[in-house]
Specification:
Layout lengths: L7 H8 L7 H12 L5 E4 L9 E5 L4 E6 L17 H24 L3 E6 L4 H36 L4 E2 L4 E2 L24
Parallel strand pairs: 3-4
Antiparallel strand pairs: 1-2, 2-3, 5-6
Length: 193
Amino acid sequence: MEALESTPEVRARMSRQKSKDTRIEVALRKALHASGLRFRVHGRPVKGVRREADIVFGPARVAVFVDGCFWHGCPDHATWPRRNAEFWRAKIEGNRARDQDTDARLAEAGWLAVRVWEHEPPAESAVRVAEVVARRKAERAARAAARTAARAEAARTAVGGVRTVAGDVPAAADGAPEAAGGAPAEDEGSAAG
C-alpha cells in the first residue's frame, strides 16, 4: 500500500480520535443510567460475530451503536475529504457496508441494532433507546406468557391420560390408565389378596 499524503497536523488530529468512550457515548450512557436502565458497555452481543456494540441490553437483546458522522457517513453531516479522496471514500463506504452487515447478522440472531448519530442530543437518544428496550422487554414477556399458556393448555388436554416419555397411555373405560399388559390397573385401595 502506498503512503497516503498527509501533514503532521492531520496525523496528530487523527491519532487523538477515540474509538471507545467518546464524549457522546459517555453522555448517552449517563442519560440511560439516570433513567434507571442497566446495560453492559463495549460487548459482542452474538458469539462468533466479531462486532462490538457500544451499549448492550442483554435481556432485551438490543445493541446500541454510537456512530460518528464522519466515520459512518452521516447523511446530514458527512464530509468528504479532498486529500486522499479515494481512500476516504472507500473507507467510509466500507464502514457503511459493515454497519448494514452487522445489523443483519444481529437481526438473524434475534437482536435489534439501534444506531445513534453523534450529532443527536444524548437526552433524546436515551429516550428513543429506552422506548426500544421497553418495547422489546414487553414483547419478550408476551412471548413467555404465550408459551406458558400453551404449556398449561397442553397439560389440561393431557388430563385424560398419563403422559409418558413414549407418549400418551390410553385410559380405560372407567378413566383409569391401563396397565402394561392391557388389563385395567387395580386401585391401590382394593384388596388384591
